[in-house]
Write the structure tokens for this entry.
Amino acid sequence: MHYLSVEGNQKLKGTIAISGAKNSALPLLASTLLSKNNIMLSNVPDVADVKTLLKLLENLGSTTVQKDNIVSIDTTQVKSAFANYDIVRKMRASILTLGPLLSRFGHCEVSLPGGCAIGQRPIDLHLKALEQMGAEIEIKQGYVIAKAPNGLKGANIIFDKVTVTGSENIIMAASLAHGTTTLVNVAKEPEVVQLCEVLRDAGLQIEGIGTSTINIIGTDGALLDMQDITVIPDRIEAGTYLCAGAITNSGITITNIIPKHLESMTLKLKQMGFGIEKDADSITLLPAETIKACDLETSEYPGFPTDMQAQFMALCTQANGTSIIDERLFENRFMHVSELGRMGAIIKLKGHSAAVEGNTQLNAADVMATDLRASSALILAALVAKGTTRIHRIYHLDRGYENLEGKFSALGAKIERLEE
Ligand code: EPZ
């Protein structure tokens, strides 16, 4: 197993290009199950989660070719609708095959993803919506067994909660259904928007893209004429590097991004005293005179993303004063608190709220990555700690950050991947 060794007390400098969004690439790859032709996706991040989904799609009978950041995929020969536990357990997002498989084949068996480090993460809303579309669903031996022998039917669905992959799954399911589906309280994340745009470009009649109500006229089972796709930039990777600049109070630039997708984060960074200069596809972060404490609450897009909560928590340890961070989406997304504590951070938890004491000298330690974003917070903390931090279990990071050491090194960080 590998670990990361990160030297502390660092200043960063320079420009890096942001990769394609993992959380957009995953639903887009799943959506290729709805296609009648071969598709080329570019700007696909070369990360473990993408490889896992490609493996699952191959397992179902697709042909995939991955070279650098381009993936070519042909799902026309897919015959199986069985997504097995061995692959699904590696990545929750495998559940994104449920909607497309059921709408294409009228039946499917997809392993239940199980719990994960950031919370219980049920899929009840996905299943309830499919049932409203006429699916018969049972859970047997850890699998979701879904049947809709005469195809899924359009329905009026109101999501009880905003769910990103739930919205994506049902949008894909509704694409080949009979009749019109109206979805209310749909997630508005840029990744959901890109999926809708790709389906629209494939000829699907879909209205309300980017709003919380979406209407889809299903194709009565006809496969879509999908076009080639360029995956949007990863706003969470971008935000993570902005936080790296911020925690070391350095000037850095990130390119290949859509600044609008990062607005909730850049607003917070400005409130904390950093300079933010935006271009059409880049952002420069300028050092703060004094880093001010901040209060933040995670919520759905366009609110502050839960996927940036851990990184901002690390940053708040260097602010002037106490910051309050409220995690509103996942009940257990504070696993990084105890690891940051091992580095000297003073963070008090009360329910879903964390009080983070600022002006704290962090010290290097051996720490453990617990989930993808928690792990990136540990790298950020390590950049300002006294001494050399060793971060273990970094396979979590490889799930979602492309060329991590390469990008940090390009900014001048002293970071190395070493064998345990
Ligand atoms: C997506 O997860 C992302 N994953 C997550 O990114 C992200 O943290 C999350 O959205 C929130 O933005 C992908 O896009 C692949 P949800 P998802 O369904 O879709 C509850 C990362 O680090 N809920 O929007 O699984 C749920 O428990 C990852 O890249 C139900 O109750 O999240 C949570 O409280 C981690 N029932 C809330 O809704 C359901 O059926 C939002 O979850 C579904 C969700």
